[in-house]
Amino acid sequence: MAAESHMSFDDYRSAEGLNASTIKNFVVSARHGVEAMGDNSPPSAVMRLGTAVHARCELGDDFDRYAVEVEGIKPGSQRETWVKKSTDLETDQIPLAEGQRIVVEKIHDAMMAHPVAGKQLRKPHESELSVFWDDPDLKVPGKARFDRWLTRTGCVLDIKTTESTQPKKIRSKVSDYGYHIQAAWYLRAARYGLGCETPEFLFVFVESTPPHDVVIAPLAPEAIEQGWAECCEAAMKWKRWRDTGEAVGVSDTPMTIELPTWAQIRGMAAPYELLGGSNE
Q: Is the per-residue pLDDT at 88 higher than 90?
């Protein structure tokens, strides 16, 4: 059981342990999980915006000393462009796309003005907290990296930029990106890595485009339970791969594919009846 604030991301990434990102990929299949473990692709534009927003929250007015808008980088530029154009920056500088500084400021101001999110963001905390533990049930080494750990309330606070704060959009994003898996794993980290018996987890969703609406969202208990079930499934696949080298794909046998529920038509007459025929 250990925790360290402001450990470099490279050191965290190279440290032993199963993290939420690896778990998400092993949920798909062991083959996907193993492939992702060797992926050193640079961050996407969306990830870089999120990093800049986190930095603005942490650095306060000092953010301007480190943030650099890089000529030739647009908000939607590909990863390769970001890497090529920002090679001359110092290691502590934060690259931004052209015109993105004001966007980061507006996102930050929107979060701080929110009656609940702003209060949470002002609480005493440790940021970029790397947590390590030996999971007593899964029998695997675990690790997690918290955006913020609210020290007095025992709460993990995680900021996500999003296209929309409409509940149905957030639900889809939670499911598509495995945020319920992340929440379940981070709660595990807080309990067994930090010794907090009853930790909490809160997402702060903020729109990346105007009006930069903000929603603070705990996940329903059922979502956390689902996330934990998927963590357990992924951990079993990971241990099998670690112990045997076996990395099975989604399925090695034929799969019968049905239409999704929303696309299935129930109670419709057979085609020959629709055409005026009969089955006699």
A: no
Rounded CA-CA distance 270/280 in Å is 13
Whether residue 75 is preceded by a cis peptide bond, meaning omega within 30 degrees of 0, is no
Specify the pLDDT at position 40: 76
CA of residue 27 relative to chain centroid, distance: 14
Of 84-88, 142-146, 227-231, give the lowest mean pLDDT range.
Answer: 84-88
User: What are 5's two structure tokens?
Assistant: 């604030």
Number of other CB atoms surrounding residue 234 within 10 Å:
27
Average pLDDT, the chain: 91
Which residues, other chains included, contact 73 with Cβ-Cβ below 8 Å and sequence gap of 6+? 81, 82, 85, 86, 95, 96, 97, 98
- Predicted confidence (pLDDT) at residue 277 exceeds the cutoff of 80: no
Instruction: Return the ∠ at Cα 181 (arms to 176 and 186), rounded to 5°.
Output: 140
Contact between 141 and 132 (Cβ < 8 Å): yes
* pTM of the entire predicted model: 0.88
- Going by the DSSP 8-state scheme, the letter that residue 263 receives in this structure is G
> Is residue 163 very low, low, confident or very high in pLDDT (cuts 50, 70, 90)?
very high
What is the Cα–Cα distance from 279 to 154, expressed in whole angstroms? 67
Among positive and negative, which fits the CA dihedral 251, 253, 254, 259? negative
- H/E element, 128: strand 125-134
- Terminal Cα distance for the chain, rounded: 73
